[in-house]
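Methods: holo model generation. Sequences were used as deposited, without trimming of termini or removal of tags, and paired with ligand SMILES retrieved from the corresponding compound records. Each pair was processed once, and we did not select among multiple samples. The sequence and zinc ion SMILES for this entry were:
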Amino acid sequence: MSGATRATGRCACGAIRYEVTAPLRDVVNCHCERCRRVTGHFMAAGQVRDDALVVTDPGAVAWWEAAPGVRYGFCPICGSTLFWRAGARGLTSIAAGTLDPPTGLTTTTAWYVADASDYHRLDPGLVQHRHE
Ligand SMILES: [Zn+2]
Ligand SMILES: [Zn+2]
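and the model returned the structure below.
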């Protein structure tokens, strides 16, 4: 855990705003094919407990259920990728680029590096996992 105790963020158009009331996990990059396609590059996300995430207008978030229990939350107006949830772990990943800087976070790890596209230059400074 690191980062500020409270953080705020929003989508590009501002229709969805949120506040995080607990420290975020440091940033993990996910290069799996699904995250690559959803984000247009890769998912870079911090993470908090669901109950530490307060979305100003939760009904404004559109969720795409990519697989049973695996959901991506995005803004239906501007298309910003905001959240990711898997199963009943009680955790929400938050797309780090939607946080208002300074985030105080550091990128530590890359998952599914084998799925990164051929144009992508992986950061050798990160702990890399071929899968999660
Ligand atoms: Zn938006
Ligand atoms: Zn992924």
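The domain at 7-119 is CATH 2.170.150.70 (Metal Binding Protein, Guanine Nucleotide Exchange Factor; Chain A).
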